[in-house]
Every structure is written in C-alpha cells, then in structure tokens.
TrEMBL record:
Primary subcellular site in the record, as a coarse category: cytoplasm
Keywords of the record: Cytoplasm, Methyltransferase, Ribonucleoprotein, Ribosomal protein, S-adenosyl-L-methionine, Transferase
Gene Ontology terms, MF aspect: methyltransferase activity
Origin species: Lysinibacillus piscis
Record GO cellular component, one term: ribosome
The protein's name: Ribosomal protein L11 methyltransferase
CDD domains hit by this protein: AdoMet_MTases (cd02440)
EC number: 2.1.1.-
GO biological process: methylation
Places the protein is found: Cytoplasm
Catalytic activity: L-lysyl-[protein] + 3 S-adenosyl-L-methionine = N(6),N(6),N(6)-trimethyl-L-lysyl-[protein] + 3 S-adenosyl-L-homocysteine + 3 H(+)
Amino acids binding S-adenosyl-L-methionine: 162, 183, 205, 248
Class of enzymatic activity (EC top level): transferase
C-alpha cells in the first residue's frame, strides 16, 4: 500500500495545534522536526535513532510530518487540513510560512515510528480502542475493548468516519446477527461487531495489506470464531443475506453499489455507510433511497457524514 507524507513547515507555537488537526484527520502518526533540536544532546536509553545529519532538520521553524493512507480520503483530507491550519490564525497562533507539501512514500520508510503517538481512546458509549503496545484497565464492566495494531492498513479507529460506524454498529448489532464489513482496513469495525455479539462477520478488502492486518487484529481480539477475513471487491464475493452491512468507503464508491447492498441486506436489516464528505450527503441519500432503502439516521462528525439506512420489511 502507498502512503502520502504530508509536510507542514510552521512555527514552534503551532506544533501542538497542528498535531491535533492531523490526528483528527486520521493520520497514523505525526513526526516533528524542529530546527532548534539540531545539535542538542540526546538521551538514547531506549535505543532511539536520531537523525544526526544537519540536512534532516529544517533551517528554521519546525516541520510537522504526518502519514496518510492513499486508499483513504486523501484529497479531501489534505484540503480539510489546510483549511484547519489556516484557521489557527483566527486564534492568533503564528503558523509561520505554512507551506504544505505532499509526497508519496513506501511503507518501509516510516515503519512504526508513529506508534508513540497513538494511545487508548474511548470513542463511543461502550467502545475503547487500545493500541496493542499500551496497558489499559477497563473503567466499567460494560466497556468493549478493541485491541488494535493497524500497521499499514487504514483504521486506527479514531477517524471520524470509523467512529461513526462503530457508534452505528453499537446501536444496531444484536447477538446472532450476520454482518458484512466492506473495506475492512485494519478490521476495526468487524472486531467491534463481533464484540457486540454478532454471530458471523464477513470482513473483506481489496487491499492485501488490509486483509493481512485485519486477520491479525481479529486473532488479537480472539474473535476468530465469529469473523472471516478475505480479499474481495465490494460485495462481489458475498452471497449470504446479512442483518447489517457496513461500508466506510468514499461516497462515489458507495453510490456505485447501493443496489448490490440492497439485495444483500435482509428485509428489516440495516446498511451503515460512511466515508461521505458533507457535500456528498444528499447524493448518497438519494442513491440509497433509489435502491429502496429508507434513511433512518444521518450522523455528522466534523465535515464527515455517516448514514444509517434500513431495508423495509
Ligand atoms: C476508509 S478505509 C475504512 C477502514 C475501516 N473499515 C474503518 O472504518 O476504519 C476504506 C477501506 O476500503 C478498502 N477498499 C477500497 N475500495 C474497495 C473495494 N472496491 N472493495 C473492497 N475494499 C475496498 C480500502 O482498501 C480501505 O481499507
């Protein structure tokens, strides 16, 4: 899978706010290169590797780098990030020259450097996402913990589109349900559905890296008996009717297969779609309705939309 490295040249005082913006935009990690850091003595008791070459540091200010999966919502996300950073000036934050560049990188180039920035996060009434390398003690007996190592697949669980899907699943999935997760990425939604009691979950993705990552996360969460992960294009390989179908993919892709989704969802069952930017909401709603779905609820988070639709009985 290809990744895009987003580099923002800014000032020290804007680093925290920009890092937040990048995390909220779904970046798997943020790396900070501060000109003031060059030449400082380093503590390396944990075996960290530091760049020693002056060329690896900006000449002035700070460069904040983030890594975004190219199969996610790259163009929309980069535009949103640029707007959010420019808006920081409304709060009198000096964002410096604010140049933003995007380059394609390979998986190996950034490996797991981002892991130190990814911590347990409660994302709904019941779900908490816990990175595998963190210790976490549940705060209530009702809490459902999704342990996750997304590796290179999309789905740290914290992107607004993922959060809304998990909230939708939490409302809908009943014990003994059959669920299909189209574009499973790290497998986060399938693991969530299984923890809610779904009897059988079909997790599929077009990307082999995602299939591998989802399999690992399914095993990590001990839901192998419920979840089957496989390589597949949209609903082409799914033949069994499902109580719930969930698809967190781009709006245009969702629009392209609403008829297939309708034929897979059982009468009275649900279709949760996400990955929809605000401007595409009505187009997706219209496509769902044209296929026969009834819109039950529209969820909003930042500029993202998720739609919960139902196939009438
Ligand atoms: C935005 S990610 C969602 C990941 C995860 N379900 C989540 O909610 O965090 C979209 C996923 O859809 C996959 N995908 C894109 N086109 C697809 C297709 N035609 N068939 C199956 N999966 C696809 C991508 O590889 C990616 O893993």
């Amino acid at each position: 899978m290809k990744w895009s490295e987003l580099s923002i040249h800014t000032k020290n005082e804007a680093v925290e706010a920009i890092s937040n913006i990048l995390h909220e935009a779904g970046a798997s990690g943020v790396v900070i290169e501060d000109s003031a850091e060059f030449g400082k003595p380093r503590e390396d008791q944990y075996g960290e590797i530091y760049a020693l070459n002056e060329d690896d540091f900006p000449k002035d200010g700070v460069i904040v780098k983030a890594y975004l999966s190219e199969s996610s919502f790259l163009n929309e996300t980069v535009e949103e990030i640029k707007v959010a950073i420019t808006n920081l000036t409304n709060f009198n934050i000096d964002i410096g020259e604010n140049s933003v560049t995007v380059v394609e990188v390979n998986e190996e180039d950034w490996a797991t450097a981002w892991k130190q920035y990814y911590h347990p996060v409660k994302i709904s009434e019941r779900f908490t996402i816990v990175p595998t390398w963190e210790d976490y003690t549940p705060v209530s007996t009702d809490e459902l913990i999704i342990e996750l190592d997304p590796g290179m697949a999309f789905g740290t669980g914290t992107h607004p589109t993922t959060v809304m899907c998990l909230q939708g699943l939490e409302k809908i999935v009943k014990a003994d349900n059959t669920v299909v997760d189209v574009g499973t990425g790290s497998g986060v939604l399938s693991v969530g559905a299984a923890l809610l009691g779904a009897k059988s979950v079909h997790a599929l993705d077009l990307d082999e890296v995602a299939v591998r990552s989802a399999k690992e996360n399914v095993t990590l969460n001990k839901v192998d008996d419920q979840v089957t992960v496989y390589h597949g294009n949209l609903l082409d390989t799914v033949k069994e009717p499902a109580d719930v179908v969930v698809a967190n993919i781009l709006a245009d892709i969702i629009i392209s297969f609403t008829d297939d989704a309708f034929s897979i969802v059982k009468p009275g069952g649900y279709y949760i779609t996400s990955g929809i930017i605000g401007a595409k909401r009505d187009e997706v709603k219209a496509a769902l309705q044209a296929s026969g779905f009834v819109i039950e609820e529209v969820l909003l988070m930042e500029d993202w939309v998720a739609i919960i639709a139902r196939r009438p009985l």
